[in-house]
Amino acid sequence: MRLKIPLTGSVLDYDILGAKYDGIGVVGDPSDPVKPVEINLGHVSWGLVTIDLVNNLAEIEVSPAENISVLKDGGNPDKPEDWTTRPSTPIEKQGFLDNAKSLVESHTVDELYTMSKSKRLVKTEEVVEKYRGNPPNVAAREQLLSQE
Amino acid sequence: MPLEFPKGSVTLDFAKRAVGGALAEDVEGDTPSAEMLQTDNAAGYYRQINLGAAEVTIVTKTLNFNAASLAFAAAFASLKEMNSADNITLRLYMGGVLMQTSAELDANKPINYVLRDFKALVGNQECKLTAISAVAGSTYRFYGFPAITSPCQAAISVGSVKLV
User: Fold this and answer.
1) Which of A5, A12, A37, A48 best probes binding to B when mutated, by most B CB atoms within 10 angstroms?
2) Are residues A85 and B103, on separate chains, in Cβ contact within 8 Å?
3) Which of A51, B72, B82, B91 sits most deeply, having the most CB atoms within 10 A of its CB?
4) Nearest Cα residue in chain B from A71
5) pLDDT digits over A92-115, tens only?
6) What are phi and psi of B109, to 5 degrees?
7) Which ipTM did the prediction report?
């Protein structure tokens, strides 16, 4: 499942050549990395697909957690040894995805920035123009991702 | 966790375009970040770290990449949470961009976790594994070898293919 989430952080540059190969091209500031706003999507992992520097959006591929922890019958929730980890069921996995999707899509971009207390993406017009003239080759990234 | 990358001259048929080049190897493990050393255990079997709202760097690798390199990074951690309410999330950054995020890991028992991705990188660029917890004061132990001077509870390896 793919989601688009507003970006925060600072963009240092856009690598035109690199974008042909990785489908992203964005060079972020290590001390203020480019990333989706800090919202807790719950029991899902995700990987970056591409970045839209015009609209300040990250497109991510979201996957449900393969395992969850549950409290043993009669267990004390304050004792780690009373918890056990088991594989997520197909229904639970769908629920994890639905929750993440609902969290993102039920809020506006402005609301997501406010909720997450994240600042807007910092970028220069020069970088955006490089992006506009040479958009990332997302197909190349998807080709490599599909090989995993 | 060393990764072996092939070496030698190759021609890559990449994205339907033949690209001549040489495969290069940038392979090296890493030591825990200074933040990991805050509450080192005397026995040396693990390093303990407390997480709050702030994101903490676990391991970092900075390399100088060729003008057209497609880099692959794999980060590994062996960890356990010490309080039942804790949930840890691991993140992989490449070149100042967040590339991969784990689900909240319920590590009631020790687990091993790997994050990996690829990105075009040019010049001096950093790849790193970080951790963050939604629960303030969460405590985690990263397990490794029983040696105080050379622990290896987490690692990040980076390999790159030079495209031109």
Assistant:
1) A48
2) no
3) A51
4) B84
5) 999 999 999 999 999 999 999 999
6) -120, 155
7) 0.93
